[in-house]
Design goal:
The longest helix is centred in the C-terminal third of the chain and has 21 residues, at 890-910. Helix content is 67%, strand content 4%. The strands form three sheets. The protein has a five-stranded parallel β-sheet with strand order 2-5-6-1-7, sandwiched between helices. Strand 5, helix 7 (167-179) and strand 6 form a beta-alpha-beta unit. Helix 47 (964-971) crosses helix 48 (975-989). It is mainly alpha-helical.
Length: 1018
């Protein structure tokens, strides 16, 4: 390597940028206080972005921060996947080896995709062909890695030259900017603004970042005349002539790099005779070098952003002394500089490199790329191992040698996929398709399927002996496009593939492409995908078992479970399980068994269905199958919630959240937050439910978990009387779900919210119309969990309208109530929760028809006392109190008083203002006092009842609606022991039910009001 060579063209004085540097220093202070910072620095080429970053990095280092730099690497016109992050993490490993080792512990295999030094990134069993969330997992682990490393000290990560960034780097950066929440961390990215034309791939990212409130941008402007004067003075080490400053300022227009070039040219007396083109100015400086140095500069220009010394020597083919002299001349003229790490060379500024590269002749460019490729093939150690395959593919491609380029590009596509760089994989596969016809037949015959695309190829052939086909490339490209979000390109590829397959008589391959089209059509909101799935099913009908056949059946069964559950879906799921077992497709089998279990639960075979789903969950955890763990911890809790076992669902969801956060499964995590919000609402833990829903919206990238979270927030807002807020969340849910792919699990909850909002605003006819639309659509088998709340809400709106004597309620009432009665008779009541809902709905319909009895509502209250739904219990207690007051009598009024106290206590704790107000208003109309009787410290009423201390504790929890299981959990006893205590209490109080026991406790003032309020959380 060369000794440092002094340069006169760079000013030793940092000029201007005071405001920008202060801004970055303020960001450093905020980061040091634990607030992560995300900054984007833009400016035209040569304006001084790198110099500003260097000054800031020096200032940050003086403050004790660790600064790591990473630059986007350009090889020809190609960017290396994740190059700036790999470089930055490598530097971080050098600076903080112990901290990085601790932060990556247990995830080395995944993170090795970014930093190969951590270990082998490809599992020994081959790639996980069903790993839909691989990229998201890698992104999440990277974000958590940076947060952990930056937990104890300030870390600055500077990523330069985003205009060259590959798509995977752009996606990862966007992910970091969206998700970083903790740590003493600054992420600073720079880009060249004058390169960002209308179709530049960085443009959408910049627009997205502008919408993020956590991301701030600095646009670096040109120097004014005074700043140009100070810069020239720094370069020349003396005050410049004012006329010279004027001329250089006019020609450079304040661009810092051009000021340097013009100042040096003027100082060396070579300014006269130059053209007005600044590009020509750059080339003139290169042309003044000796011929050998010019030749080396041209070689470096075509080699990439940085060229290693040994690689440069192999390509230049100069004697070592001659090469060193040529490099010394280029470095001395400040054209080239030693790259960081002293292992290679790069141009001092990319503008010079581009000018030299653009000046190459077409044949010269191809020849240089060929020599780079040949040198790298002869000695692979010339470049870092993590870059070797990608750079070789780029060199051969730009050498215009299809015979060499096609195999190299295919190898690079596998590397990209294994790094979850699916955008680069797609680009490389499209290059392979471009090269296919140009490559010699004998070369194509030696190629083998280089990777596995899910269940493709389905021909049953041995991929080690069967030649690669063009269709195989299309299959790879279709999946890569789907995974990286380039769905339009993927859809076009599947269309072309199916056209090629029209006359080939290969039904399994065609069926596979139709399944891909179904997924793409759904993802692009162009339909529900059933037509495409139907075509795939017809193609495999009657064929022997295969992975494709199992995949088609499993996909169709899952589609039907979500949209049209029934016998056909059950049959498809059963056959999918059978076929998957026969062909050894483990992931398909487990997914199909989850679907089958869910369908069994919905059809009423609850125990068998849950057993199936619990077994899948256990197998997934035992084998560490990340591709299925998300679904197992989403679908099983959903099934449990559907039958009213909310507490059981919460336990599994919290376990799933821990796993998805550890493994980086962001979309699965979002689904779990959404389902957790639903179960917590049922359990009466509303504040936690709202927090879970917000987490779902922050976490996931897909629209549907966002829609579910908006539904939960709307449900809470409606129950709390925040009607406008409920309508806003409902509109957000509708926008997330769209209209292209209706599902009962989405549409019925939205109908419920629309109906409830209309009823709350007194728009009874609108509420009826919403209910009519839901009834017209029908309730397919398995949708009762969503249908019962809709029927109940419709019945409540009608019964309240009658009680309020609304004039608009009369017309059409009888026919509408009859329609609701008929719907109630058709819905299943296979679980206690839905039997309770049936009783409640029938009671509301009786009330709407002017028929209500205390016996009816007592039965409803008893049904809900056995469940884990405090808000529902409070509502039916309110109804029972109303019925008791209608009867009159001292005992009835006493019972009603206690029921209303319980109702108001629960509603107040939950923040359910409409229910709390309704309880208070009913008490006022009946002239009842809901103030609890004062305690008499001299005599404990519990003593007169003969209650033990433990029985008193149990009665306190019974009074706020806790179930035996909840009592057992809170008092650290078994549910059986809790049941025995409850039975003893009922006997000592001389009552027949838990509700009456609670009423006695309140009437006697056994428990302070504040104790009851604090105990109603669930």
């Amino acid at each position: 390597m060369l000794a440092p060579v002094e340069s006169r063209s760079v000013s030793p004085v940092f000029v201007g940028r005071t405001a920008e540097l202060e801004t970055l220093n303020d960001a450093l202070a905020r980061a040091a206080a634990g607030e992560p910072q995300a900054w984007v620095l833009g400016g035209e080429a040569g304006v001084g972005k790198t110099r500003l970053v260097e000054e800031f990095a020096s200032a940050a280092a003086r403050e004790g921060a660790v600064v790591v730099l990473g630059g986007c690497v350009e090889i020809g016109a190609d960017g290396l996947p994740f190059a700036p992050f790999s470089t930055a993490l490598r530097a971080l490993r050098r600076e903080l080896p112990d901290e990085l080792a601790a932060a990556t512990a247990g995830q080395e295999e995944e993170l090795a995709r970014l930093l190969p030094e951590l270990g082998e990134s490809t599992p020994s069993g081959g790639p996980d062909r069903s790993d839909e969330e691989g990229m998201a997992r890698l992104f999440e682990l990277t974000a958590r890695l940076l947060e952990r490393v930056a937990a104890g000290r300030t870390v600055v990560v500077a990523l330069e030259d985003l205009h060259w960034a590959d798509a995977s780097t752009r996606h990862l950066l966007a992910y970091l900017f969206r998700t970083l929440r903790t740590g003493r961390l600054i992420v600073l990215a720079t880009y060249r603004s004058d390169d960002i034309h209308r179709r530049h791939p960085l443009r959408p990212l910049l627009a997205e970042l502008d919408r993020l409130r956590t991301v701030r941008r600095i646009e670096l402007g040109r120097f004014n005349r005074a700043e140009v004067g100070r810069q020239i003075a720094g370069i020349l080490a003396c005050e410049p002539d004012p006329a010279q400053v004027d001329e250089i300022f006019e020609r450079s227009d304040g661009n810092a790099f051009f000021v340097e070039e013009l100042a040096v040219a003027a100082h060396e007396g070579s300014c006269t005779g130059l053209t007005d083109s600044l590009r020509d100015l750059l080339l003139v400086r290169v042309e003044r070098l000796p011929e050998s140095a010019q030749r080396v500069a041209r070689i470096v220009a075509e080699g990439g952003s940085t060229v290693e010394y040994r690689l440069l020597a192999a390509v230049a083919q100069l004697a070592e002394d001659d090469l060193i002299e040529a490099l010394r001349a280029a470095v001395g003229a400040n054209i080239l500089i030693a790259a960081p790490g002293d292992d290679g060379y790069r141009f001092r500024h990319s503008l010079v490199r581009e000018a030299v590269g653009d000046d190459l002749l077409p044949g010269e460019r191809s020849r240089l790329n060929r020599r780079y490729a040949q040198a790298l093939e002869a000695d692979p150690t010339l470049v870092p191992a993590g870059e070797r395959v990608m750079r070789l593919a780029s060199y051969w491609y730009h050498a215009h040698d299809p015979a060499k380029a096609l195999p190299a590009v295919l190898d690079a596509s596998v590397t990209a996929r294994r790094r979850h760089a699916h955008s680069e994989q797609l680009r490389l596969l499209e290059r392979a398709m471009e090269l296919w016809d140009s490559a010699p037949e004998d070369i194509r015959a030696t190629l083998r399927p280089v990777d596995y695309t899910e269940v493709y190829p389905p021909c049953g052939c041995d991929p080690t002996t069967t030649a690669l086909r063009y269709l195989d490339l299309m299959a790879e490209a279709a999946v890569a496009g789907r995974r990286c979000g380039e769905r339009e390109r993927a859809l076009k590829i599947t269309k072309r593939a199916l056209h090629l397959l029209e006359d080939d008589g290969e039904p399994l391959r065609a069926a596979w492409f139709w399944v891909q089209r179904s997924r793409l059509v759904q993802a692009m909101a162009r339909g529900d995908g059933w037509k495409e799935l139907g075509t795939a099913q017809e193609l495999v009908r009657g064929l022997p078992p295969s992975e494709v056949h199992a995949e088609v059946l499993a996909t169709a069964a899952n589609w039907s479970m979500l949209r049209a559950p029934g016998p056909d879906a059950m049959s498809a799921a059963e056959r999918a399980v059978e076929y998957a077992r026969m062909v050894g497709a483990e992931d398909i089998e487990l997914n199909a068994r989850l679907t089958l279990g869910g369908l069994m639960v919905e059809s009423g075979d609850i125990d068998a269905g849950l057993t199936q789903m619990y077994e899948v969950k256990k197998e997934v955890l035992t084998r560490g199958l990340t591709a299925v763990v998300g679904r197992s911890h989403v679908n099983l809790p959903s099934a449990l919630e559907g039958i009213g076992r909310s507490q059981e669902a919460v336990v599994i969801l919290r376990e799933g959240l821990h796993l998805t956060q550890e493994w980086g499964l962001r979309d699965s995590e979002a689904w779990m937050w959404t389902n957790l919000a639903e179960s917590l609402i049922s359990l009466g833990q509303w504040d936690e439910a709202a927090e879970a829903a917000v987490n779902a919206q922050r976490t996931g990238q897909s629209a549907k978990p966002h829609g579910g979270a908006s539904n939960r927030l709307a449900q809470l807002a409606l129950a709390r009387g925040e009607i406008a807020e409920a309508a806003r969340h409902l509109a957000a849910a509708r926008a997330s779900y769209g209209t292209h792919d209706p599902m009962p699990q989405n549409n019925l909850p939205m109908s419920l919210l629309a109906l409830g909002t209309a009823a709350a605003e007194g728009r009874l006819l609108d509420a009826r119309a919403e209910a009519d639309r839901a009834l017209d659509a029908g309730f397919p088998p398995g949708t009762h969990r969503y249908a019962w709340p809709v029927l109940l809400a419709a019945a409540v709106s009608e019964s309240d309208a009658r009680a309020q004597a609304l004039p608009t309620a009369q017309e059409g009432r009888a026919a509408f109530l009859q329609r609701l009665f008929e719907a109630v008779r058709t819905l299943t009541t296979g679980a206690p929760v839905w039997l309770a809902y049936e009783k409640w709905t029938r009671a509301e319909l009786d009330r709407a028809d002017g028929r209500t009895t205390t016996e009816t509502w007592s039965d409803v209250v008893t049904a809900f006392e056995a469940l884990e739904r405090p808000y529902d219990l409070a509502q039916v207690r309110h109804r029972l109190a109303e019925a008791l007051l209608a009867v009159g009598g001292d005992d009835e009024r006493a019972r009603a008083t206690e029921l209303l106290r319980l109702t108001r206590a629960t509603a107040t704790h939950l923040g359910a203002r409409p229910l709390a107000d309704a309880a208070s208003h009913l008490a006022q109309r009946a002239r009842l006092s809901l103030t609890a009787a004062p305690h008499r410290p001299t005599a404990d009423p519990a003593d007169s009842l003969g209650l033990t201390t433990r029985e008193r504790d149990v009665l306190r929890l019974v009074s706020v609606g806790r179930t035996n299981r909840q009592i057992a959990e809170e008092l650290f006893i078994s549910p059986k022991t809790a049941s025995v205590h409850v039975s003893n209490i009922l006997g000592k109080l001389g009552v027949s039910g838990r509700g009456e026991a609670a009423a006695v406790a309140h009437r006697m003032g056994l428990f302070p009001a504040e104790t009851l309020t604090s105990g109603t959380s669930g």
